[in-house]
Design a protein that fits this description.
Shape: globular
Helix content: 25-40%
Number of strands: 23
Strand order of the largest sheet: 8-7-18-19-20-17-21
Largest sheet: 7 strands, mixed
CATH topology of the domain at 10-78 and 251-313 and 450-486: FAD/NAD(P)-binding domain
Number of helices: 17
Strand content: 15-25%
CATH superfamily of the domain at 10-78 and 251-313 and 450-486: FAD/NAD(P)-binding domain
CATH architecture of the domain at 10-78 and 251-313 and 450-486: 3-Layer(bba) Sandwich
């Protein structure tokens, strides 16, 4: 007979070592070092991390009748999403966009009543490649015909490889080893002599993966490309992955999910160790100790590696986490009294191969007279500027914007930035990137559970890897796996 709180029959609960599954958990607002000898609290599943993946796992398990606790190291939920304010307006300091095919995020928004609005695209975009600035409308870069032909050929080659890929097992692709030992930069050098095309792909790599082209293999580039439906959707604004933004921030959805989970979400609770036996898991955090049948770790691989595991992780899993690093990104919001660039016939979208920042979009708020731009230091730009002061970064940002948009760009009314590499519980974004050679050597350890420990997070997704949509889908997959194990 199923217990009302856990949804497990008594035999299954005892077989998994679940004792006292209805015990109370700590409040969301508190998080203190557990007193010596503190009595562990018991739940069916202990979830580590309150980003979109962890919150999805928790809410789906609760719907299935299981008891959960979500232990979040930070003082907020949302993971690599975060809300901020610029000129009195709510903005996303982390992930923010949604595309029309990102069904998991769109379904969540519909469920929670969060509206989206189209990304502003009217006017001419600015493309600054190999010392030549071009202004154009639409999605196709205005390259010379021969360069555009080369660009189409290379994107078709990448998309063709991605289409053959098993996203969950890219190392099985024919020729995977050679692709994994060839960086995007070395591929560009051999694939084309067109410097504008090479430069465009370099910026594409920085913008999407937040690393330099020499820091990611061709095989490493393919799963994220395949999971997004190809290079076109990844690059596109209208109809692509940057199609729309959410009114009031995407982060609010994480906050609403956490609020519905109530005291099951515990903030300021860094997990220090996870011990597993044949009977269950014991998870020790700075807010207390929890036991359960299963644990789900949603932190990206390099952050999950900072947890102490008993017994130790298998060699392949441990090696994988040593060969994946977070991307480097600094996100910047600049507010102006008006969106003056629109009066000049510009969309606010800038794509550049030589600035400290390489990508900008219009973020003016509908219903206000204010102007807003959002931009990114990514890859080498972030690596170079992460140790500089906010004042130095602000000065560089305004200098670069003024060069493209005119002197009005030097006089904003507000400025905000998020240096993701400096965040103690994220250490970068948007996604953890495997080093060249890592996928073929250690890739199978990315998704597969280790005993009673399951892995979720956008890195483990099979759709929209690196996006919020991927994080949600990974949470749904792992929650379903846990339910099967809880109900043998």
């Amino acid at each position: 007979m199923k217990t009302p709180r856990s949804g497990l029959d008594r035999r299954a609960a005892l077989g998994l070592g679940v004792l006292g599954a209805t015990a109370a958990v700590a409040t969301r607002s508190q998080g203190q070092v557990a007193p010596s000898g503190a009595q562990p609290r018991a739940v069916d599943v202990v979830v580590v991390g309150a980003g979109f993946a962890g919150l999805t796992v928790a809410r789906n398990l609760r719907k299935a009748g299981a008891s959960v606790v979500v232990l979040e190291a930070d003082d907020r939920v949302g993971g690599r999403t975060k809300a901020g304010r610029v000129a009195g307006q709510v903005v996303d300091l982390g992930g923010q966009w949604v595309g029309p095919k990102q069904r998991h995020l769109l379904a969540l928004a519909a469920e929670l009543g969060v509206k989206s609005s189209p990304q502003y695209v009217d006017g001419k975009n600015i493309l600054d490649l190999v010392g030549k600035e071009l202004r154009y409308e639409g999605e196709i870069p205005p390259l010379e015909p021969k360069d555009l032909e080369e660009f189409a050929r290379l994107t078709a080659e990448v998309d063709g490889l991605a289409a053959k890929l098993d996203i969950a097992a890219p190392w099985k692709l024919e020729g995977a080893s050679a692709l994994d030992h060839q960086t995007v930069e070395s591929w560009l050098q051999s694939a084309t002599t067109s410097e504008p095309v090479r430069s465009f792909f370099r910026v594409f790599t920085r913008a999407l993966f937040c690393v330099e082209p020499g820091q990611i293999s061709m095989l490493g580039l393919l799963p994220m490309t395949a999971a997004a439906g190809g290079t076109g959707p990844m690059l596109a604004t209208r109809g692509g992955s940057q199609d729309a933004v959410f009114a009031g921030s995407v982060w609010q959805m994480a906050d609403r999910m956490a609020s519905a989970l109530g005291d099951a979400v515990v903030l300021n609770a860094p997990v220090r160790s996870i011990t597993q036996t044949e009977r269950g898991v014991t998870v020790t955090s700075e807010a207390g100790v929890w036991t359960g049948a299963l644990a789900v770790v949603t932190a990206p691989p390099p952050m999950a590696a900072r947890i102490h595991y008993t017994p130790p992780m298998p060699p392949q899993r441990d090696a994988l986490t040593q060969h994946m690093a977070m991307g480097d990104v600094i996100k910047v919001h600049v507010a102006y009294a008006t969106p003056f660039w629109r009066d000049k016939g510009l969309s606010g979208q800038i794509f550049s191969d030589h600035g400290a920042t390489c990508l900008w979009f219009d973020m003016a708020h509908p219903g206000t007279k204010l102007g807003g731009l959002v931009g990114f230091f990514v890859g080498g730009g972030a690596q170079t500027w992460v140790e500089r002061t906010p004042e130095e970064r602000r000065a560089r940002v305004l200098q670069e914007l003024a060069g493209y948009l005119g002197p009005e760009a030097r006089t904003p009314i507000d400025y905000a930035e998020q240096v993701w590499a400096a965040q103690p519980w994220q250490r970068g974004g948007y996604v953890a990137v495997p080093a060249p050679g890592a996928l073929t050597a250690y890739g199978p350890a990315l998704r597969g559970p280790v005993g009673r420990i399951h892995w979720a997070g956008t890195e483990t997704a099979d759709v929209y890897i690196g996006y919020i949509d991927g994080a949600i889908s990974s949470g749904e997959r792992v929650a379903a796996d846990c339910v099967k194990r809880l109900r043998p």
